[in-house]
Amino acid sequence: MIRKIIVLMFSLLLALALAGCGSSPTTSAPQEGKIQVVDDLGKTIVLQQPAKRIISLYSAHTENLFDLGLEQEIIGVSSKETYPPASVKKPAFDYNGDPEKILAQQPDLVLIRPFIQKSKPDFVKALENANINVVCLYPENFSRFDDYIRKLALLTGKETVAEEKLKQFHQQLDEIQQETANISPKKRVFFESTETEYRTITPDSIPANLLQLAGGINVAADAKAVSKESSIASYGVEKILARAAEIDVYIAQSGAMNAGGSPASIKIRPAFNEIKAVQENQIYNVDEKLVSSPTFRLALGAKQLARMLYPEAFDKFTQLPQQTTLSRQELAEMVVKYKHKEFFSPTSKHYNRTSGHLYGSFVDVALDHPAFNYIETAVQAGYLEGAGNKFEPDRAVTRDELSQVLFLLADLKDTATDVTIKDISLCEKPRIVELIVKNQVLTLDQQKQFNPSTTVSVQEALAALNRLQQL
Amino acid sequence: MKKIALYFLVPLLVGLLLTGCGSTATNDQAKEPPASQDKKAILVVSFGTSYPDARKACIESTENKIKDTFKDYQTRRAFTSDIIIKKLADRDKLMVDDPEQALTKLQQEGYKQVVVQPLHIIPGKEFDDLKAVVDKFAADKAFDKLVLGRPLLGYQIDSNNTKDFDVAVDALKKQLPALQEKQIVVFMGHGTEHQSNTAYQMMNDTIKQANLPAIVGTVEGSPTLDEVKASLAQLQVQDVTLMPLMLVAGDHANNDMAGDEEDSWKTQLKKEGYTVTPYLHGLGENEAIQAIFVQHTQDAIDQLNK
Predict the structure, then answer these.
(1) Is residue A226 part of a domain?
(2) B217-236 tens-digit pLDDT
(3) Its family (chain A) (predicted)?
(4) Which of A86, A301, A303, A456 could crosslink A460 through cysteines, CB 3.0-4.6 Å?
């Protein structure tokens, strides 16, 4: 009953506010209220209290709301969610569908982005006519990211969390920037945003900023936006080929919205073999979710770009004392760096799978676990595996376990040499241990024992990886 | 202002160009005999692929074999995958018809005899869909003669005729590496819930009779990877070469078969301790397989002329 009254009062206030803004939303004075936010369409939204029943129709909004700790308050999401894993389980709403479905949920805040306003104005109008607070946000430029997060926080009463998150976010970016600042010469990069017409990104777009942070020089910095406010820029094959000798690294965005080519398809495009990056096999895909979507995972995207550009600096495994016993989370980091494997980022297809490990489902590896991305990436690539819903990140790695991981990292072949391993019957995968020993990746002790259950040190594991690389 | 002019000009030019193409096409047809009993076409139908190199090596190569063999026929292409057709149009500006569009064009251009030759492996759902389209054109009497050829393993499984399987296994021999003891080839087929999935078991039986060191499994049907693993354990092999039993080495071959992914066949078999070598070439690259599709086209033509 009370809620109903509040909703009614709210609607009344909002109606007044809207009536006020009607003709020229930017200049009119909003009604008094506890929370006032001007959205990206210039509309002033007034809330009496932080939103408690939120529907987000854009995946980046959803991801950020989750990061601000609003899992309870989110009552609906878009149909294209992929992160965090909990977002996929929320009720999904579609702006191509019936607005009544949203109205029936009585949300006190519906978050959209300009694209929705532009493509489905009637849908948005229907919500607004029912006195729903519709807030339209989207930071086209990297410099507007903080402001965007602060608006989300203001609407939901999460200002303190937001400041903390922003601080961490900028710290992570600063660390990457500091590391790349001293690298010379810098790698020159072409960033392909769409495979259609080989478009790139505008110089002030989010990916262009990350690229710069990651120490890359954008060879297409002169590119012009395809349309006003778009982060996609025209470029085309002639211009790319005109700079063929300058392109050290070719990075193509992958994803559902705007996707460039796969390394395999880029390699075989007519005349693309003139490009230095193609000749040197420096072609990569990076998930648009990590470099284009305005979320805190941009820090991960920046790190990913830095790893692609400067693997010798960013895929170095040195932070631990060499004598330390190797734990499973350290092994995960070690193998991802060894293989220069791109950080795994889930797609909607991933959540449809019926077997294998589901992203984020290890109960002992939370999303904010420091090794989360290394562990998920290593497991999704099949190099390591969990035991049921546990990964056991702190457990020490045995020689038996290490031999299996090493075997997966390389394509070892049988050799003509014969070896006798006295304790082979104690090994979980005797054939793998045999091949690892035959190829001298790990060696036996004086008594010709493999000692499968003995733990390994960081130093031993690094030495084994070195030998693997030299095979 | 100039920009705006460009926006108008470009579509105009493209439009002109396209009409230009249109008329060349008609010119080409003008070289053909006039509409008569003699105006004949072969429509080669495959699933399609968005990998340009694989398209060239596996699909175009087979299409060209058919084209070169049946010179008095006009050879056309159709893909059955709408997603791939759309992707090629958007990305590469490469326009490919689906079977219905291709047959409609042939009808409009006055072709009288049409052979539809699929490049599919088994007569599964894709083939059923194609058959439905062909049946529709037959019912509409769109052509004087219209016939659908059979896929690679096209003989009905319930008949006693296993000739297609023998011939296919002979062709596969051409791409087997020199194998030693404890080495084997595992073919990865697509697999389906459709009843035609039994073709894969038939292949296994035929391979066994031929005494070849190979087995067949599927991604989406049976034999499953678990069944493949059980067979490998029984055969006591140590080294596996993975080959796609698919026309094209595309997504399935690159990811499901050979990818660095936890559930790829390569990873799953390596976890069991097998040394694994993936072979990333589709059946369409095998000239003996191309020859089978040529023969199936010939069989269809024979049927047409009965």
Answers:
(1) yes
(2) 999 999 999 999 999 999 99
(3) Belongs to the bacterial solute-binding protein 8 family.
(4) A456
